Amino acid sequence: MPKYTCERCLKEFSQKSHYIKHKDKKLPCQDNKGRIEEVVENIISNRKLILTDTENITTTTNTMSTEQTSSDINFEKMNVKELKSLCKEHKIKGYSNKNKDELISLVITHQTALTPEPKNSVNNPTLETNNADTFTIGTLFTGIGSVEHAISRLNIKHKIAFACDICKYVKASYIENYNINQDDWYSDVNDVDGNKYKNVDMIVGGSPCQSFSFVGKQKGLEDDRGNLIFQFIRVIKEAQPKIFIFENVKGLTTHDQGKTFDFVKSKFGELNYNIQYSILNGKDYGIPQSRNRLFMVGINKNSDIKMNTFPPPKIELLIKMKDLLEDNVENKYYLQEKGVSFVTKEKNIKKKYTQINGDIALCQKKNQQFNWHGDFIKEYREIPSKYYLSEKVKNYVLAGGTKNFKTSTETDLDVARPLLSSMHKMHRAGVDNYITYEEKIRKLTPRECLRLMGFSDDFKIVVSDTRMYQQAGNSIIVNIFIEIIKQIDYIVNFANVD
User: pTM higher than 0.70 for the full model?
Assistant: First the structure.
């Protein structure tokens, strides 16, 4: 199939229509060709790419000798095969299926890989012992801070070394709920330099899972999001934390008949860590949600830290989903809608402006019933109308499917189905969770979704319902982190004893 290449940004297209659409964009594409030529010229002239004469390394006749200095290197004169050999020799990834200009760009952006490591660089460094009384943690693909919340629930004295997430709404939720230096928040994982956080106690991350999820397109490592796993590995290699925890969907282990996971494991195996992994389900650790996830725990081989038991012992499930439903919600029987909204607002209840079914009444005030302050009694509780389904949507979600797609119509489950980041779109009942309430059906509220992820009610919601649904669905069950951490005495020893 012929390929069409943009002369400006060098991007290739297999279809002419896509190529024409690209050229007709209002905003011009990036001038990569000119940039490559300019950068190559600057690197050569300024001798920024250093290859020492003293390293007597010989390569095949088709590759460049690493004895050359930067002034001798002219990438333009190298052919594609030589450039690929250079990438392979210096372990630069992603060079296959690239043309000459793209290879030159790749080499330039990884120029540090071409610089020989100092002779005395340590392959087996001795980890410094954390003599402080504070446990340090960094997170990648942070989300709303599941592991941070777990550590807080365990009353472990800790400091957040860094966090990283691309979504500005996630950042808003995170900043509101956790203490972190603004300079240590990253919006792009590529900007995280693990060398800046050497010997942090633990790094945790769950890279985007849509590439491997059973409800996604399962493009695997062909999807840019799937390749973010290797950014996590890069940061671990640079920072050398004492412990790391990696989380992803169960589908990562089965994608491409397990070949993808074998490759990922091989890359983790190149790190200096004792690694264990297992599929853990939230319903086995105290949360009534059926949510299978892969958890991989690595302990630095140069530390004396031990993992007592992995996977952690299962816990009997003592609660059902209905036990996590909200109580203080709007009641239309006694007030009109505007009054009910004011009386039941979380901030008004917290500030003691209003109280519902209290044991001890608030202090009575003049005309309080006219401005919706004071005590109110609920004999019949009702959820805000926005969480109920219209008749049209109700008929859709309760439908058994189409001719080629059949699904369950069961609602009011004892154990919730896996929460999806797209649940605000209201999938069929066989995919999402729905509740029958006084012969009406409603969605889970954002707070209930957080409870089903193990978040306490002191977690502040500062984004819209839609954003909170997405953030809860993308999060990790807090209780699983709690049970993993309990098996690592090194972490538990940082707990405050009050």
Answer: no
Interacting residues of 261 by C-beta distance below 8 A, sequence separation 6+ = 252, 253, 254, 255
Q: In the beta sheet, which residues pair with residue 354?
A: 374
Give the Cα-Cα-Cα angle 125, 130, 131 (nearest 5 degrees).
130
Phi, psi dihedral angles at 491 (to 5 degrees): -75, -45
Q: Which residue has the higher pLDDT, 182 or 323?
A: 182
Residues 42 and 22 in one domain: no
CATH of the domain at 433: 3.90.120.10
- Distance CA(255)–CA(62), nearest Å, equals 37
Residue 57: count other Cβ atoms within 10 Å of its Cβ.
11
Residue 129 domain flag: no
Place 427 in a pLDDT band, splitting at 50, 70 and 90: confident
Contact 477, 282 (CB under 8 A): yes
229 and 255 co-located in one domain: yes
Q: Cα–Cα distance between 255 and 221 in angstroms, integer?
A: 10
Is 194 within the bounds of a domain?
yes
Distances (CA, A) of 250 to 211, 214, 218, 229, 292: 12, 9, 12, 14, 6
- Length reported for the chain: 498
What would the two tokens of residue 419 be? 């929460």
Residue 456: per-residue pLDDT:
95
Structurally, how many domains does the chain consist of?
A: 5
For residues 145 and 258, the model is more confident at: 145
**Tokens, residue 113:** 């890989």
Q: CA 107 to CA 102: how far, in whole Å? A: 9
SS3 content of the chain, % helix, strand, coil (to 5): 35, 15, 50
Same domain, 143 and 218: yes
Return the pLDDT at 3.
61
Whether 204 and 310 map to the same domain: the answer is: yes
The whole-number average pLDDT for the span 35-55 is: 43
- Report the candidate in 10, 1, 158 with the shortest Cα–Cα distance to residue 490: 158
Task: Please check whether residue 397 is in contact with residue 429, taking contact to mean a CB–CB distance below 8 angstroms.
Answer: yes
What's the CA gap between 492 and 346, in Å, rounded? 34
pLDDT tens readout for residues 368-407: 344 555 545 454 456 677 877 777 888 777 777 666 767 7
267 and 155 in a common domain: yes
Distance of CA 129 to the CA centre of its chain: 29
CA separation for the pair 151, 204 (Å, rounded): 12
C-alpha closest to that of 341 among 330, 354, 352: 330
Residue 295 pLDDT: 96
- On whether both 199 and 55 belong to a single domain, the answer is no
pLDDT, averaged across the chain: 74
Domain span at residue 368 reads 335-376
Pair (358, 452) in one structural domain: no
At a CB cut-off of 8 Å and minimum separation 6, what does 474 contact?
A: 143, 421
